[in-house]
Design a protein that fits this description.
The chain has an 8-stranded parallel β-barrel with strand order 1-2-3-4-5-6-7-8, surrounded by 8 helices. Helix content is 51%, strand content 16%. The chain has a single domain (8-249), classed as Aldolase class I (TIM Barrel, Alpha-Beta Barrel), CATH 3.20.20. It has helices at 14-23, 30-39, 58-67, 80-89, 116-128, 141-150, 160-167, 171-190, 203-210, 222-231, 233-248, 250-255; strands at residues 8-12, 44-48, 72-76, 93-96, 132-137, 154-158, 194-198, 215-220. The radius of gyration is 17 Å and the shape is globular. It contains 12 helices and 8 strands. It is α/β, with parallel strands linked by helices. The longest helix is centred in the last third of the chain and has 20 residues, at 171-190. The two termini are 22 Å apart. It binds pyridoxine-5'-phosphate. Residues 12, 48, 75, 95, 97, 136, 156, 198-201, 219-223 line the site of pyridoxine-5'-phosphate.
Length: 256
């Protein structure tokens, strides 16, 4: 079997902004967090500009674009406002996520099947501006086929159901959701999609997902920011990176 390719870590800094916004003011600064994550070995920074600006703000996006050397993955709803912001800032990537109940499938990802007509223009306008588009979907064949039909080069598989089963210590559930993620990653890669995954991953749940060889990137935020309260952000990112590497290359990391 050939070596699995490298697995990138995208660090989501939204919840640094959540803490800042709880008091207003400027601290803690999500841009500072992004620079620390970069220093600790993150391959990209992810930030979600929500319609209600609950965490990241427009000025955070401007500062990230001017201060980061890592690629920025902007998570956004498929709305006119977010499209024009993305086109103005030209981040490396845009991940289209659901923000309203009616945009969701039953389990939480974007419904790319039912939303095909609405999503089409967003995918083509972002792609036309050289922004790498991904769709945040459930690990489901019909959603992968829909993403392919839409012309999105990347999908991000929602790992929430797997993580919920892991937290509940539900062995059968973990196995079931891991199988769905594995099969979806294999199928997605077989139809030419680049496949990412994320949502809810922790030190305890990351390794089985990171071991799926078809995955090219994991996006992780809430746990890393929470853990940073105890050990610092640099240490939490380094530890997550090490666990991902151990899962990908068990032989070489064991020999070190
Ligand atoms: N991927 C996507 C598309 C997301 O919207 C989020 C944030 O909800 C994440 C990954 C990261 O999830 P978490 O913060 O739970 O690690």
């Amino acid at each position: 079997m050939s070596e699995p390719s490298a697995l990138r870590l995208g660090v989501n800094i939204d919840h640094v902004a959540t803490v800042r916004n709880a008091r207003g003011g400027d601290v803690p600064d999500p841009v500072r967090a992004a620079l620390i994550a970069e220093h600790a070995g993150a391959d990209g920074i992810t930030a979600h500009l929500r319609e209600d600006r609950r965490h990241i703000t427009d000025s955070d996006i401007s500062r990230l674009m001017s201060q980061l050397t890592l690629p920025l993955n902007l998570e956004m709803a498929a709305t006119e406002e977010m499209l024009s912001i993305a086109l103005r800032h030209q981040p490396h990537a845009a991940c289209i996520v659901p923000e309203r109940r009616e945009e969701r499938t039953t389990e939480g990802g974007l419904d790319a099947v039912a939303g095909h007509n609405h999503l089409q223009r967003f995918v083509s306008e972002l792609g036309g501006a050289d922004i790498r588009v991904s769709l945040f979907i459930e690990p489901d064949k019909s959603q992968l086929d829909a993403a392919k039909r839409l012309g999105a080069p990347v999908v991000e598989l929602h790992t929430g159901a797997y993580c919920d089963a892991a937290i509940a210590d539900d062995g059968a559930g973990v196995e079931h959701h891991l199988r769905r993620l594995t099969e979806a990653a294999q199928y997605g890669a077989s139809i030419g999609l680049e496949v990412h995954a994320g949502h809810g991953l922790t030190y305890d749940s990351v390794k089985p997902v990171a071991a799926i060889p078809e995955l090219a990137e994991l996006n992780i935020g809430h746990f890393l920011v929470g853990e940073a309260i105890f050990v610092g952000l640099q240490a939490s990112v380094l530890r997550m990176r090490a666990l991902m590497d151990e899962a990908r290359h068990p032989m070489s990391t064991a020999a070190q």
